[in-house]
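Not sure how to ask, but would you mind making up any protein sequence you like and the C-alpha coordinates describing how it folds?
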Amino acid sequence: MARGHAGAGLEDVLAEGESLSTAAYAAKRFEGLITPFAMPLLIGPGAISTVIIYAGEASKHFGLYGYGLGLGVIFAMGLAITAAFWLSGPITRVLGRIGMVVVVRVLGLILCAMAVQFILLGIAGATTGLMRPEFLGG
Protein backbone atom coordinates (compact mmCIF):
# COMPACT_ATOMS: atom_id res chain seq x y z
CA MET A 1 0.00 0.00 0.00
CA ALA A 2 1.35 3.40 -0.88
CA ARG A 3 2.06 5.72 2.03
CA GLY A 4 0.83 9.30 2.11
CA HIS A 5 -2.85 8.67 1.33
CA ALA A 6 -5.65 10.15 3.42
CA GLY A 7 -6.99 6.89 4.92
CA ALA A 8 -5.07 4.60 7.26
CA GLY A 9 -5.08 0.94 6.31
CA LEU A 10 -4.29 -2.03 8.51
CA GLU A 11 -0.67 -1.90 7.41
CA ASP A 12 -0.39 1.71 8.58
CA VAL A 13 -1.64 0.92 12.08
CA LEU A 14 0.49 -2.14 12.80
CA ALA A 15 4.18 -2.14 13.60
CA GLU A 16 6.57 -3.96 11.27
CA GLY A 17 6.00 -7.72 11.45
CA GLU A 18 2.96 -7.40 13.75
CA SER A 19 -0.30 -9.14 12.87
CA LEU A 20 -3.78 -8.46 14.20
CA SER A 21 -6.96 -10.52 13.88
CA THR A 22 -10.02 -8.90 12.36
CA ALA A 23 -11.83 -8.86 15.71
CA ALA A 24 -8.87 -7.30 17.51
CA TYR A 25 -8.50 -4.71 14.74
CA ALA A 26 -12.22 -3.86 14.96
CA ALA A 27 -11.99 -3.58 18.75
CA LYS A 28 -8.98 -1.28 18.47
CA ARG A 29 -10.75 0.97 15.95
CA PHE A 30 -13.97 0.99 18.04
CA GLU A 31 -12.09 2.12 21.16
CA GLY A 32 -10.99 5.20 19.25
CA LEU A 33 -14.62 6.06 18.48
CA ILE A 34 -15.80 6.02 22.11
CA THR A 35 -14.19 9.28 23.23
CA PRO A 36 -15.99 11.68 20.84
CA PHE A 37 -19.40 10.33 21.92
CA ALA A 38 -18.98 11.62 25.48
CA MET A 39 -18.43 15.27 24.57
CA PRO A 40 -21.86 15.97 23.00
CA LEU A 41 -23.46 14.67 26.19
CA LEU A 42 -21.58 17.32 28.17
CA ILE A 43 -21.60 20.31 25.79
CA GLY A 44 -23.90 19.28 22.96
CA PRO A 45 -27.33 20.52 21.91
CA GLY A 46 -29.12 18.48 24.58
CA ALA A 47 -27.09 20.01 27.39
CA ILE A 48 -27.46 23.51 25.95
CA SER A 49 -31.23 23.19 25.50
CA THR A 50 -31.56 21.79 29.04
CA VAL A 51 -29.78 24.83 30.45
CA ILE A 52 -31.95 27.18 28.37
CA ILE A 53 -35.18 25.49 29.44
CA TYR A 54 -34.26 25.44 33.13
CA ALA A 55 -33.02 29.06 32.95
CA GLY A 56 -36.39 30.10 31.55
CA GLU A 57 -38.23 28.22 34.28
CA ALA A 58 -35.97 29.65 37.00
CA SER A 59 -36.39 33.22 35.75
CA LYS A 60 -40.18 32.85 35.79
CA HIS A 61 -40.23 31.67 39.38
CA PHE A 62 -37.20 33.34 40.98
CA GLY A 63 -36.19 36.28 38.73
CA LEU A 64 -32.58 37.47 38.94
CA TYR A 65 -31.97 35.23 41.95
CA GLY A 66 -32.89 32.27 39.71
CA TYR A 67 -30.19 33.19 37.19
CA GLY A 68 -27.57 33.34 39.94
CA LEU A 69 -28.77 30.06 41.34
CA GLY A 70 -28.59 28.53 37.86
CA LEU A 71 -25.01 29.70 37.37
CA GLY A 72 -24.11 28.25 40.76
CA VAL A 73 -25.65 24.91 39.80
CA ILE A 74 -23.78 24.89 36.47
CA PHE A 75 -20.50 25.58 38.29
CA ALA A 76 -21.22 22.87 40.87
CA MET A 77 -22.05 20.37 38.13
CA GLY A 78 -18.81 21.24 36.36
CA LEU A 79 -16.91 20.45 39.55
CA ALA A 80 -18.86 17.21 40.02
CA ILE A 81 -18.17 16.12 36.42
CA THR A 82 -14.47 16.93 36.80
CA ALA A 83 -14.33 14.88 40.02
CA ALA A 84 -16.16 12.00 38.31
CA PHE A 85 -13.64 12.05 35.44
CA TRP A 86 -10.74 12.00 37.90
CA LEU A 87 -12.29 9.17 39.90
CA SER A 88 -13.55 7.12 36.94
CA GLY A 89 -10.87 4.45 37.34
CA PRO A 90 -11.52 3.73 41.03
CA ILE A 91 -15.31 3.96 40.50
CA THR A 92 -15.11 1.41 37.68
CA ARG A 93 -13.01 -0.95 39.80
CA VAL A 94 -15.42 -0.68 42.76
CA LEU A 95 -18.62 -1.13 40.73
CA GLY A 96 -17.30 -3.81 38.38
CA ARG A 97 -18.78 -4.71 35.03
CA ILE A 98 -22.30 -5.51 36.26
CA GLY A 99 -22.43 -2.46 38.51
CA MET A 100 -21.48 -0.22 35.58
CA VAL A 101 -24.24 -1.75 33.45
CA VAL A 102 -26.77 -1.07 36.24
CA VAL A 103 -25.61 2.54 36.64
CA VAL A 104 -25.77 3.17 32.89
CA ARG A 105 -29.29 1.75 32.68
CA VAL A 106 -30.57 3.75 35.67
CA LEU A 107 -29.07 6.97 34.32
CA GLY A 108 -30.55 6.17 30.90
CA LEU A 109 -33.97 5.79 32.52
CA ILE A 110 -33.59 9.16 34.26
CA LEU A 111 -32.54 10.77 30.97
CA CYS A 112 -35.57 9.25 29.24
CA ALA A 113 -37.91 10.58 31.93
CA MET A 114 -36.41 14.06 31.55
CA ALA A 115 -36.85 13.89 27.78
CA VAL A 116 -40.53 12.95 28.13
CA GLN A 117 -41.02 15.82 30.60
CA PHE A 118 -39.46 18.30 28.14
CA ILE A 119 -41.65 17.04 25.31
CA LEU A 120 -44.82 17.29 27.40
CA LEU A 121 -43.91 20.80 28.60
CA GLY A 122 -43.25 21.84 25.00
CA ILE A 123 -46.60 20.48 23.84
CA ALA A 124 -48.38 22.14 26.75
CA GLY A 125 -46.73 25.47 25.97
CA ALA A 126 -47.41 25.25 22.23
CA THR A 127 -51.04 24.14 22.45
CA THR A 128 -53.16 26.39 24.60
CA GLY A 129 -55.75 24.44 26.55
CA LEU A 130 -54.70 20.95 25.43
CA MET A 131 -52.60 20.25 28.57
CA ARG A 132 -52.33 22.23 31.74
CA PRO A 133 -48.66 23.07 32.45
CA GLU A 134 -49.26 23.01 36.20
CA PHE A 135 -50.34 19.38 35.85
CA LEU A 136 -46.99 18.61 34.20
CA GLY A 137 -44.95 20.31 36.88
CA GLY A 138 -44.15 23.41 34.81
